[in-house]
């Protein structure tokens, strides 16, 4: 540890000043715009107005609903996937983990674009339905909540699986066999042993997936079209089409409050786990 | 075969199909000989792969994205390495506040960063769009740079540089001759992580894109709204192989995953 304060500040301040000037100050001004009245006072009127619109309500609820749905489904798939991967031999486990991480390296635009080929009017799903005689006319899957759900799930599932793999690996190896020997069935083993022991991993994965969904832009923009909006695509429309900066500020505030709440939760879980680990040593 | 021994292979097969399948379809579609995007591809040709290189707007936006990814990451490292060093080696009053400030851009959604820069920096101060994009991408990468470099500094014992200083080296000399060679891998990993993050980033650049000034992913999104041919698929495959290649090389030569 060096003690020279002037030196330390000289090293750290350029980065801090840069982040404050380019990022923190402009964002704070943007947020405050949503609380300003025309005569310069403070008001919540913009929030009242925003939430009185049925369209905005629908978009807000849809964003929460899709976020929750994707988080829950990715947790269910994530446990099955992580459990299977952890049970493999070390070499196979490494390869399978690589396969889960691989999509994260690919541009989300490319990953989302693939679903147009699959879900579009002449896409694979519709071709299969026609061949099997399940539907007469091509189904309209693209530009719907279903399409956004599938796109988001594919985008964020890897984050959940990775969190759960490390949680399952940190679990005491004999916990599951012990519960089995004592007569628990697989449902009880999951509910009473695995879930409590991997809770932190689930919360970390869940937070990453949920905030990812809340702040998604690319997926709803490509798979939702201009009708099925989520908060970020609504924000873009408010600015680019309606020039409504007050509404944009309200949406920005909603997004920031929700992301911060999620991150706070994440931090608390992480510190709780660290203190637990230290205590265990 | 019991139900349990079937569970693992079935799950893994379905998982791989869901995660990798769409990507393989994109790759297959980019070799199509047909005029519209479709799967299974109609015939085989390289025309769409070759066409990507002839589209003028793709070339311009690729150059822009490369500039932002390389320049923005370099700038973030120039700011981030000294800051990480101060945070890990000095008793710094307000260290937590500084750490929070430099890592804040990671928590706030990119679209908000882009909009507030546009409204309160670009418009009032007449900053050019290219410069604004550069500032936004630098701010976006700064948290990653600080996190990865800090991690490798924390793994390095601080007494070796104290020893260098005691033996008569200047503080600066000790940093460049003792610390830098030891955190080289971390810095390179931070560079790769920053590059990939910046290159794939859409929301930050959304409001900062003007006529003729666009990043590649935004250009691709605009193109696919108008034209329904396989060229975006071809471009997506090329980019995917590029970033997978970079990450694989990094993992092989640096042990990338140790740092990230």
First CA to last CA of chain B: what distance?
A: 40 Å
Largest interface: A-B, 78 and 77 residues
Number of domains of chain B: 1
CATH superfamily of chain A: MetI-like
H/E topology pattern of chain B: HHHHHHHHHHH
| Helical segment count of chain A | 13
Q: Using the alpha-carbon principal axes, give the shape of chain A.
A: globular
What integer is the average pLDDT of chain B? 88
Low-confidence parts of chain B: none
CATH topology of chain A: MetI-like fold
- Overall helicity of chain B: over 70%
Kindly provide the radius of gyration of chain B, computed on alpha-carbon positions and rounded to a whole number of angstroms: 23 Å
Percent strand of chain B: under 5%
What's the Cα radius of gyration of chain A? 23 Å
Order of helices and strands of chain A: HHHHHHHHHHHHH
Strand tally of chain A: 0
Layout of helices and strands, plus pairs?
The complex is a heterodimer of chains A (281) and B (260).
Chain A: H1 5-33, H2 45-52, H3 54-86, H4 90-105, H5 108-119, H6 124-131, H7 145-169, H8 175-181, H9 186-197, H10 199-214, H11 218-223, H12 231-240, H13 245-280
Helix pairs in contact in A: 1-13, 3-7, 3-10, 4-7, 5-7, 7-10, 8-9, 10-13, 12-13
Chain B: H1 3-29, H2 47-52, H3 56-89, H4 95-103, H5 110-125, H6 129-154, H7 159-166, H8 171-200, H9 203-206, H10 216-226, H11 231-254
Helix pairs in contact in B: 1-11, 3-6, 3-8, 3-10, 5-6, 6-8, 7-8, 8-11
